[in-house]
Write a structure and sequence with these properties.
With 390 residues, the chain is α+β, with helices and mostly antiparallel strands. 38% of the residues lie in helices and 28% in strands. The strands form 4 sheets. An 8-stranded mixed β-sheet has the order 6-5-14-15-16-13-17-20, sandwiched between helices. Strands 8-2-1-12-19-18 form a 6-stranded mixed β-sheet. It binds 8-demethyl-8-dimethylamino-flavin-adenine-dinucleotide and P-hydroxybenzoic acid (PHB).
Length: 390
């Protein structure tokens, strides 16, 4: 089989890139080692930046997002034993940029529907997916599908296969530098069909661990609490989760918590990770394949979308004008943005989580949150980073 761009991975990064290319008549093939049902069962991100919203609109698949998504203009921070709170009106502080609450699952559903409706080739449940010869002019991706062996010959390979994918692992270790930070805690998350405690996202610093109140719709809530990494999911009933959430929240919010069965409950570890560069010959890494951020700043999916757009721009320039400058600059331009999001995500994580038992460090965190919350410059810094730097 021959195509222009072979895309490994059908998460947001691969599907956005595939659809952007398809809409411009640039032939591409998507190959994923999981089924579409499995991909749609993953519960992950929920908050889209303005730039991601713009990409979805540009793709012509925004009808449901624009109808069902919730436009947000601010979030609330809560901290300290006296539960001080401050709203960060990010839209007002960033010349009108909004955030859209629309689940990654819903976005993936829209992207898959668009992919399935067009003529482009996609392979799901592929086995042994392997990129080859990407330092040559004739790279290819091999895999098995329904008992048949396939080779997709292409000009370029886009590695959009997430943190555990095969693309980054196929690059010789000496070709990349890896920067990594693991955090000694995770997030225990619950998704439930109950109305949220607030119409805006709430981030809380609590002496026993961070709390995040988010949502997917006016009737579906997404909550997270910080837990230590040795916590086991089987030790957490949903009732224990609700009790702990209410114990940490201020009384007025705890009273508003509506409990119910969990649609999903999981523990996610937190990690910062960047590999440099993110281009290796004719293999480009996109999204979580190249970098991971702790979810505190809501940046992972948004970075995946902006990487995909950046690579698409380079490919367009190449296929429409024969100019490879955009592709040459992909790695450095994307990494510039990636590092800014890494910094913000690391900083938000360090500011709001219980890091250790040091009472001094906790005082420093509370003092910094208090300062930022009451300073216009501080609020603006948070707002600009939260909505996404250009
Ligand atoms: P994905 O979504 O992991 O998709 C990768 C795809 O590649 C396939 N694959 C392979 N295919 C072929 N061969 C192989 N060997 C393969 N190995 C893997 C997989 O099946 C899959 O289909 O990566 P992508 O596209 O880069 O997208 C990244 C986002 O999914 C991720 O960054 C976000 O979910 C992170 N994230 C958040 N991001 C935000 O922007 N806002 C948020 O509010 C937000 N909240 C979150 C999050 C992630 C979380 N978890 C669980 C890590 C909240 C949580 C709890
Ligand atoms: C979510 O709704 O899942 C969510 C919201 C904000 C974050 C991370 C995750 O910072």
């Amino acid at each position: 089989m021959k195509t222009k761009v072979a895309i490994i991975g059908s998460g947001p990064a691969g599907l956005i890139l595939g659809q952007l290319l398809h809409n411009q008549g640039i032939d591409n093939v998507v190959i994923d080692n999981k089924s579409q049902d499995y991909i749609l069962g993953r519960i992950r991100a929920g908050v889209l930046e303005q730039s991601t919203v713009n990409i979805i609109r540009e793709l012509g698949i925004s009808e449901r997002m624009d109808r069902e998504g919730l436009v947000h203009n601010g979030f609330t921070m809560i901290w300290g034993q006296d539960c001080q709170r401050q709203r960060i009106p990010f839209t007002e502080l960033t010349d009108g940029k909004i955030m859209m609450v629309y689940g990654q699952t819903e976005l993936t559903k829209d992207l898959l529907a668009a992919r399935n409706a067009c003529e482009a080739f996609s392979f799901y449940d592929a086995e042994d997916v392997t990129p080859h010869d990407f330092y040559s002019e004739s790279p290819l991706v091999s895999f098995k599908h329904q008992g048949e062996e396939y080779e997709v010959h292409c000009d370029y390979i886009a590695g959009c296969d997430g943190f555990h994918g095969v693309s980054r692992q196929s690059v010789p270790v000496k070709e990349m530098t890896v920067y990594e930070n693991a955090y000694p805690f995770g997030w225990l998350g619950v998704l439930a069909d109950v109305p949220p405690v607030s119409d805006e996202v709430v981030y809380q610093h609590h002496q026993d661990g961070y709390v995040l109140c988010s949502m997917r719709s006016p009737t579906r809530s997404r909550y997270y609490i910080q837990v230590s990494l040795d916590e086991k999911l089987e030790d957490w009933s949903v009732d224990r989760f609700w009790a702990e959430l209410k114990r940490r929240l201020p009384d007025d919010l705890a009273e508003k918590v509506v409990t119910g069965p969990a649609l999903e409950m999981s523990i996610a570890p937190l990690r910062s990770f960047v590999c440099e560069p993110i281009r290796f010959g004719n293999l480009f890494l996109v999204g979580d394949a190249a970098h991971i951020v702790p979810p505190t700043g809501a940046k992972g999916l948004n970075l995946a979308a902006s990487d995909a757009k950046e690579l698409f721009n380079g490919l367009m320039q190449f296929y429409q004008q024969g100019d490879s400058e955009g592709l040459e600059q992909y790695s450095s331009k994307a990494l510039d943005r990636i590092w800014k999001a890494e910094r913000f995500s690391w900083w938000m994580t360090s500011l709001f989580h219980k890091l250790d038992d040091s009472a001094f460090r906790q005082k420093m965190q509370l003092s910094e949150i208090h300062y930022l919350a009451h300073s216009k410059a501080g609020q603006t810094t948070i707002a600009e980073n939260f909505v996404g730097l250009d």
